Amino acid sequence: MGAVLGLYRHRSLIKNFVKRDLQARYKGSAIGLFWSVVHPLVMLALYTYIFSAILSVRVGAPEGTGSFAIYLFCGLLPWNAFAEGVSRSTGVILEHANLIKRTLFPSEVLPIYPVVSGIVNQLIGLGILLAVLMVTAHPLRPLILILPIVLLLQFALTVGLAWIVAGITVFVRDLGQLVGMVMTIWLFLTPIFYPPNLIPERLRFLLATNPIYALVESYRCLILKGQMPTGDSLAVLGFSSVGTFLVGYLVFTRMQGAFADVI
Amino acid sequence: MYAVEAENLTKIYRIYADPKDRLKEYFLRGRRTYHQEFCAMRDVSFRAQVGSTVGLIGDNGAGKSTLLQLVAGTLRPTSGSVRVQGRVSTILELGSGFNLEFTGRENAFMGGAIMGIGQREMERRFPEIAAFAEIGEFIDRPVKMYSTGMFLRLAFAVATSVDPDVLIIDEALSVGDQYFTKKCIDRIERFRKAGKTILFCSHSLYQVRLICDHAIWLHQGQAAAQGEAPGVIDAYENYVREREAQSASPQDSPEPAGPKPFPWIARVTVGADGDDHPRDQFTMGDDVTVKVWYQVPKPPTRVHVGVIVNRNDAVQCFGTGTHFSRVEPPPRSGVVCLCLPKVNLLSGEYDLSVYLLDETGLHVYDQRLRGVKFKVIETGQELGVCYLDHRWRFEPQPHEKGPSVTPTEEIPLV
Hints:
The structure holds 2 protein chains of 2 kinds.
Chain A: H1 2-9, H2 11-26, H3 34-54, H4 68-95, H5 97-102, H6 112-135, H7 147-171, H8 175-189, H9 205-208, H10 211-225, H11 231-255, H12 259-262
Helix pairs in contact in A: 2-6, 3-4, 3-6, 4-6, 4-7, 4-8, 4-10, 6-7, 7-11, 10-11
Chain B: E1 2-16, H1 19-28, E2 35-49, E3 53-57, H2 64-72, E4 79-84, E5 88-91, H3 104-114, H4 119-133, H5 148-160, E6 166-170, H6 178-193, E7 197-201, H7 205-211, E8 214-219, E9 222-228, H8 229-248, E10 264-272, E11 281-283, E12 288-295, E13 304-311, E14 316-321, E15 334-340, E16 348-357, E17 364-377, H9 407-410
Helix pairs in contact in B: 3-4, 3-5, 4-5
């Protein structure tokens, strides 16, 4: 509860950091924020070309879309936001060493802004996805209004993990390397580039414990299939998100007092 | 009513030779230690009353910044506690939160957000910040284009815009030019008059003397002295001078011990006039008497006595001798008194060098180099070695009398 209140109190600060982060990415470039739209568009076009035109990969009707590119894109959106948030949190404390050592500063805010930045980019991609679906006359159900709840759980999960990673990296810098590797492994173990039914029966248990799979499935259910996600995946997502968020907050706030001594 | 109360602050850093050691130690859970401890602050306590200005002085690495950071809360003490009442603003490093790619305006708002000031509140305060910074249209240009002065002024304006109850300043004023320093000091004075509490650290003892009511002299992480600012600063200045004098002249020649075949100095005392008890502390303006006992083994032998008053950093303040004054001490064992009425030495530690010379004043029979020490205390704020009688007068400049006076018109007067 304290974690949520704390975040609310610092909302203006978080907003400023996110704004600055997004601006900094395109500072000095001519078309600025427009790049955030161009990038996912190009990726979607590329997926379509490679997987549909060259490799002719198709997914089955039960996945809600015939186009593998759409299927992949829909799954990659939450993954990219999650991966960006967690990976960037490794450096976020060290980058702001000045603030931590020289000003009275709530450092728990720092791992949050890359997460929010990632989600902002995801929302842009999501807008493109929905636009493409509408143009291709894909039926969208009102169920899609549940997306904000899934997004909130995704935020909680990412922030929780970002706190843990950000805090530990201050003391053990090697974690930065490890996180990069783990994220790649995680990406390929999650059915994002392939549908879950391709996984052999005896390895399915891996899916049940993977909150990112639950997250990705929730997006696909709501957007592509127009179905409510299964109770199982919602339960996995809900528990892991809230749990990670709380544990992350505890871990981070226990460590943050010692940051100034180490960095 | 105290704005800051610090009790027994101790800060110990753990230093690991290798980052691996930190991990090893963590997993071994105290069964083996891999770190060395470095004690940056040991057992420092102080209180700052609401509205007071406290100065921190001391050598580099004495722990001034550590103490400020502990009070500010950016560092946590290993043991001890700090209690601060009211809103704290810290100027530990000017512009540390600035991003060079962003404009002055953006950085000001970001700086405000970091200090917990919302967008709307910051908009209200922004004109004042811009006015103090005096950077005109540059306010909407990236900070990387700023001159050092512009950057510092903006940073200082942002840092002090929060209207703090307790302001913590670390060396902020030692950067920048005279103009900047003047502006900052004016603003600090305004805070002081508004009854804010200020914690201030500077290498400029002059600034500390002017601004601070109380001072703490930190030496190797410990409070060597604290209390009223002038006394603490004097103590620190003495220490610095003594150290400099020591490094300048490591060792004077060892003094020969008597009895000797030629005249020697038996004893030297310093005391108040008309008082036989030796004293080692005087107030400026006291009458001081130096007494020199000397032995002449083969009388009659004509001797002269010379006395030099040194400050403890080996500056000779005043020296005289019986031969300069054309008086002749008796040519046998005796006592010479040098009366110094109304000694105008400023506060500090002083000592005496006493010489016993032959009748020409050229040959030294015996000497006591810087043996007798005494201290002078003064209540004023004057600087230097001795008090020069003075008064102030004000004269208007000639051209201010009227605009019509020009140099050409003055020529007929010559």
